[in-house]
Amino acid sequence: MISGADIRNYSSNGSAGARQPVIAYVYGTRPNFIKMAPVIERMRARLPAARHVGIHTGQHYDPEMSEVFFAELSVPAPDHLLGVGSGTHGAQTARALERVERVLLDDPPDLLIVPGDVNSTLAAALAASKLGVPIAHIESGLRSFDWSMPEEVNRVLVDRLATWCFTHSPEARYHLRREGIPEHRVYEVGNTMIDSLIRMRTRIERSDVHWRLGIPRRGYVLVTLHRPALVDGPLLIEALDELDALSRHYPVVFPMHPRTRARASEFKPSSDALHLIDPTGYVDFLALESRARAVITDSGGVQEETTFLGVPCFTLRENTERPVTLTHGTNRLLGLRVDALRDIPAMLRAARFPLRPPAGWDGQAANRVANVLAESLGASGAGSEAGPADMVATI
Description:
395 residues, alpha/beta, 7-stranded parallel beta sheet, 6-stranded parallel beta sheet, 17 helices, globular, disordered N terminus, disordered C terminus
């Protein structure tokens, strides 16, 4: 394992004989794009002379789940599109591992940055580790302690391989230290997903998604469900029945992934207030999220976004790797009891929510990441917007 101290230094002043670093970014799913967009932007600004290489595995490949995010987040088109696609965890991870490895062999980077906990992330980290490429892990240290979740396996293994573990909440540092990750590899930088949300605020306010969908601008419940436990079995129809009943209290808006819609093809809502719609773009989804009376989800990222926005969130999962959303008071775990959805009106009447987001969820997380990595690459003076004090990446 290459440590941060072992990484080669590069001149940032363009002097003769100096070689600029090659920095690779691997992403493959909708949440990855959101977490990585501000990191890519800040790394490009911080290291303008470096060569920045985008590697899109294609784990999410539908236009609504992929292409729209590049446009809305202003992420440069990827240099490599690997077309991994869907499949079993083993097949998908194997294809991503093989194809990322080929890219790294053909065009060796000096640093690989990976986000989150999807199969693309694990595959890229394995490929880089075996080739001796230092790894930076965005959103490190999250733990659900549920080993039946593929994401838990992925995130624990990637943290073991990473040279830099960038965390976004206090308990993440504790998890990493308890697992034996050395202190010098752990950096508390904040939440890069919130960076993206903050940068989109003007466009969120301008979104006309409510008018286009014919739904009210306030007072509705937004739903997003995608995990196999809910959408790959009988619980999906049970959940839709409960949402149908809930829509008699609040209009319900449910952007459905194509796979989820296919599994619910026989469901017929009895209420016109249950809106089953196609997936939306990032800006439109945030507009729906920010104006919702409440959100029902099984998504980790949505738990974080609602915590920042101060929107009540009800999570249909037995556990969460984001306990800060629970202790902060914006999120409530319902387990897999879809019948608990009928209690939401009463819970909303009694709810009280904080006005401020967690520490470090301030729009500057990517800048802290870029400062740490630029310093490690020996480019502490290139394009920096922060002074020396900001190089301490502990919030």
